[in-house]
Amino acid sequence: MSGEAIVFYLLAAVTLASGVIVVTSENIVHSAAALVPSFLGVTGLYILLNAEFVAGIQVLIYAGAITVLILFAIMLTEGGTGFGTRQRNEQAAVGAAVAAAMAVLLIVIATRTGWTAGSGTLPLYTPGVIGQSFLRQNILVFEGTSVVLLISLMGAILIARRED
Amino acid sequence: MDWIRDILRAVVGTIIIFSAVAFIAVMFGVLLERKVSAWMQSRLGPKHVGPQGLLQTVADTIKLLQKENIVPTRADPIIFASAVIIVPLAALLDYVVIPFGTTRSGPLIFRDLNIGVLYFAATSSLVVIGILMAGWGSNNKYALLGGLRSAAQMVTYEIPIGLVLVTVALMAGSLSTVTIVNGQARLWYIVAQPVAFLVFLIAATAEVNRAPFDLVEAESELVAGYFSEYSGMRFALFQLGEYGEMFALAAMAVTLFLGGWHGPVLPPVLWFVIKLYALIFVFMWVRWTYPRIRIDQMLNFSWKVLIPVSVLNLIVTAFFVVMAHR
Amino acid sequence: MLLDWGYVAIFALVGAAMVALPLLIIWLISPRSDYPQKFETYESGVPTIGEAWSQFHVRYYLFSLVFVVFDVEIIYLYPWAVVARSLGAIAFWEMLVFLTILVLGLAYAWRRGALEWT
Amino acid sequence: MPGLTHYLVVSALLFALGLFAVVTRRNSVAILMGVELMLNAANINLVAFNKYVAPGAMQGQIFALIVITLAACEAAVGLALVLAAYRTLETVYVDEINLMKW
Q1: HSE-up of residue B214 (Cα within 13 Å, Cβ side)
Q2: Is A156 contained in some domain?
Q3: What residue ranges do the domains of chain B occupy?
Q4: Is the pLDDT at C55 greater than 80, yes or no?
Q5: For D45-68, how does the pLDDT look when each residue is reduced to its tens digit (9 = 90+)?
Q6: What stretches of C10-67 adopt beta strand conformation (E)?
Q7: Disulfide: which of B120, B155, B226, B310 matches B147 by Cβ 3.0-4.6 Å?
């Protein structure tokens, strides 16, 4: 087994194991804390896929910002007080079956399809290459994002602010 | 066997950087803090352990090692234990991209990453998670309040730091720290970017929760903030995290604005260390001079002063960089 | 490039081990006490009342909300900063549009009082 | 050497985990965490396809960045909704938020 394969399996194991903690833990703060190793595992996978810029963004936004937001939201609502409360609804078994069926379906599709290996070599995705792409081909996406950000900022403030 | 050599080099490099940060930066930094504060208040400071009190922090660390190992029964054991690893580790991870000097065979840096400053921003944002976990895991009212305040403060001041990093990256045309330092061979960026330097310095002070931004661990109201419940060696590890982060930010300021290792006559590494300690002295000077500000002033200052100023500064810089290039 | 990140991974692993080392040492050598008061939560010396895990004010959320949006904004500035010089004036104008829209967001948050610590 | 299929399998498993959280959790914040896991799974796919199927183009990575952005917006707005619901109904459990149901 090559070094890359070992690293891949380790990262996949970290991602999925902490993912399992996220979805099964009875303590909501443990779930949120387990999100961090899961996101970091995905970061490692991005690096294996030669996407280091995306990996940096993943840490900055997911691990550094979204998790903080989630932790804040937990502490502003139930916090740790919801320990005794049931965390899963009555359809846990059905849900597990659906999720398992979904996983099987996706895996079958992924393994049975003959993916055409693309032509061309993978360029080194430096921030510069990404920047070129954003400012040239994907300029509309780039400017559109800022509008989306503005709208979601306004919407979220409008919703979260106490009206008094 | 190339890969064995690589692994060995990485491990040795890590151990060197960690020991240097722990002993030279943090232990000496704590001593320096006490000496500087004593000097500013016309006291003598630690004087008895070793020559001129030089070994005071070593003695303190040995004392902390022998303290009882106390985890409060009401605390959440897993979160409580992981926070104490995350905070110092996230602070120390910053040192990967800091160029300490240069030798004939190339710059003295652990690894010159393509996304250098972005990596720096990403790892320092991980500290916030550790602090929130420490505050929540302690199940202590002071700790939780301090943790929430710390997190609010650190995320607020991450934005101006990010904007300043972008401004410098724009000047250098690269995110790699080595390229940024090389770009300052003739002129340090502080000359062209005094505003950005000031913003970075203020935001860095807030980022490491030092006075005047120490309202999150204000002794008189919050005991010690998020690490109130951590005693003995765990307390020392939080100190490692805090001082490690302070030195990392100062080193980043040196890299971004003060020309890194560049300087006449003296060897490069020495120049870097001199600049680093000069900035550390400024941090300490500020800490022992200014009173603590209130939380609303702290937040207002970032959102209504620092961020608009740094956005404006970025636009002006972009204008000059792009127009000058034509 | 993978080599760079291999180094970083080893840095993180060895670093975690070195940070955990003092914890192992104190686990081995530190004295134990079975004095129950020592394991109480600290509350200025009086007996602890209730759990600390309670509800907090929504203003913390408003600040982290504005933070997330601006943090996301900055990730788009990094690649732009690298190529702005080579792309010339067009890069400047594109970024001006982008930043203006986000400054509008800041102005809105300011106006609505989301940046007030009330 | 791990190939495209390896990444797709990991992402399928992560997606299923997220889906499980979304359909069975009662706490709305936990549901949002499940959604974040699903978005991460989608992102792994995008970047993996970029590397193995279309290495010349870079739409995969660009799109992954867009998805991360939208995930941040979604988290901000979603959690704001949770807070608003908590303020009026004093619960974050989705089966107790039933004002519109009769």
Answers
A1: 20
A2: yes
A3: 1-66, 78-325
A4: no
A5: 988 888 888 777 778 888 888 899
A6: none
A7: B226
- The string of DSSP letters for A57-121 reads HIIIIIIIIIHHHHHHHHHHTTGGGGGSS--B-TTHHHHHHHHHHHHHHHHHHHHHS-PPPPPSP
CB-defined contacts A:D, below 8 A: 243
Tally the domains of chain A: 2
Q: Which of D52, B4, D95 is nearest to A121 (CA)?
A: D52
B53 token code pair: 């009190």
> Over 70: is that where the pLDDT of A83 sits?
no
Cα dihedral sign, B277-B279-B285-B287: negative
Q: Which residue has the tokens 């931004």?
A: B213
Closest-CA distance of chain B to residue A74, Å: 11
| Chain A residues whose beta carbon lies within 8 Å of the beta carbon of residue D65 | 54, 57, 130
Q: CA nearest B147: which of A131, C52, A5, A18?
A: C52
Q: Does D76 contact chain C (CB < 8 Å)?
A: yes
Q: Where are the domains of chain D?
A: 4-89
Compute φ and ψ for B261, nearest 5 degrees. -85, -5
What pLDDT, on a 0 to 100 scale, did the predictor assign at position D51? 82
| Burial degree of B261 (CB within 10 A; 0-12, 13-18, 19+) | buried
Tens place of pLDDT per residue across chain D (102 aa): 677 888 888 999 999 999 998 888 888 888 899 999 999 999 999 888 888 887 777 788 888 888 999 999 999 898 888 888 888 877 777 777 777 776
Would you state the structure tokens that stand for residue B159, as one six-digit string?
């934005």
Strand ranges inside B85-231, DSSP E = 101-103, 106-108
User: Of B303, B304, B312, B325, which to mutate for an interface test with C (greatest number of C Cβ within 10 Å)?
Assistant: B303
- Whole-angstrom Cα distance, residue A16 to residue B281? 46
Q: Which CATH architecture has domain D4-89?
A: Orthogonal Bundle (1.10)
Identify whether A54 is part of a domain.
yes
Domain range list for chain C: 2-111
Q: pTM for this structure?
A: 0.89
Contact present, D and B (at least 3 Cβ pairs less than 8 Å) = no
Q: Radius of gyration (Cα) for chain C, nearest Å? A: 25
Write out the residue range of the structural domain in which residue A155 sits.
Answer: 123-164
Does C94 contact A143 at a Cβ distance shorter than 8 Å?
yes
Chains in touch with A (≥3 Cβ pairs < 8 A)? B, C, D
Tell whether the model's pLDDT for residue A66 goes beyond 80.
Answer: yes
A67 and A13 within one domain: yes
| C:55-84 residues touching chain B, CB 8 A cutoff | 56, 60, 63-64, 66-67, 70-71, 74, 77-78, 81-84
pLDDT tens digits along A15-36: 999 999 988 888 888 888 899 9
- Residues from chain B that touch A146, judged by Cβ atoms under 8 A, are none
Are residues A127 and A79 part of one domain?
no
Confidence band of B219 (pLDDT split at 50, 70, 90): low
Q: Considering CB atoms only, which of D2, D6, D47 is closest to A54?
A: D47
**CATH for C2-111 (3.40.47.40, 2.60.40.10, 1.20.58.1610, 2.60.40.4070):** 1.20.58.1610
Residue A25 lies in a domain: yes
Distance from CA of D102 to the nearest CA of C (A): 30
